Amino acid sequence: MTKGSVLITGASRGIGLAVAQRMAAEGHEILGVSRSAPKDFPGTFYAADLSDARAAKAAFAELAGKHKVLRLVHSAGRVDPALLQEASDAEFAETMRLNVQVAVWALQAFVPGMRAERFGRIVVIGSRAGLGKATRLTYSTSKAALLGLTRTTALELATEGITVNNVAPGPIETELFAKNTPPGSPARAAFVSTVPMQRMGQPEEVAEAVAYFLSDRAGYTTGQTLYVCGGLSVASPV
Predict the structure, then answer these.
(1) Cα 3 vs. chain centroid, distance in angstroms?
(2) Which of 61, 140, 163, 210 has its CA 20 to 30 A from that of 107?
(3) Active site residue: 139, 212, 220, 227, which one?
(4) Known catalytic membership, residue 227
């Protein structure tokens, strides 16, 4: 196991927290960044509003200066359900900033350290919705952008021992999903009925996919997207 810290954005809940717990179980030093601190975080937590450019860049610079971050997971994100004519400029800009721009800031902060070690593992959390989903204009657009970011940076870093991959979940039982699709609601029942496995996924199942891409063993896999979606991306690609 290559020594170095694991930095996770959006680490206070859901998939980000599950990844932190999964990697901590392997003995990695875990660094978490998000707006609010979780209970029983398995590592060192830094509170920062990542949607604020100055705060995000300052937090990343501080972390890069204090720790040897060789594994990076961008899990921070937001969902703004909206149809085309309903999407506001403010919501679109905020979603793109948190879901995509923060990933760029993080890579700019931590890739130099990975280059120095000639080792790095980067995973961005995308979404099956990046293939297209009704009522998710801003969210789907942001997650499709992460696909381009993954593929482009993977090519740029391929000769330097640094991999970049994308884990794209389907419906996962997180606080964010429950907020937009409450348990017991007709919307949730309709959604789950489209999933071939006929159930929601769990954050821990996504964390397993992330853990593979973060491992030393995954050194020959880069620029790829792995859908953890219960078969939804196959049954309903759009």
Answers:
(1) 22
(2) 140
(3) 139
(4) no
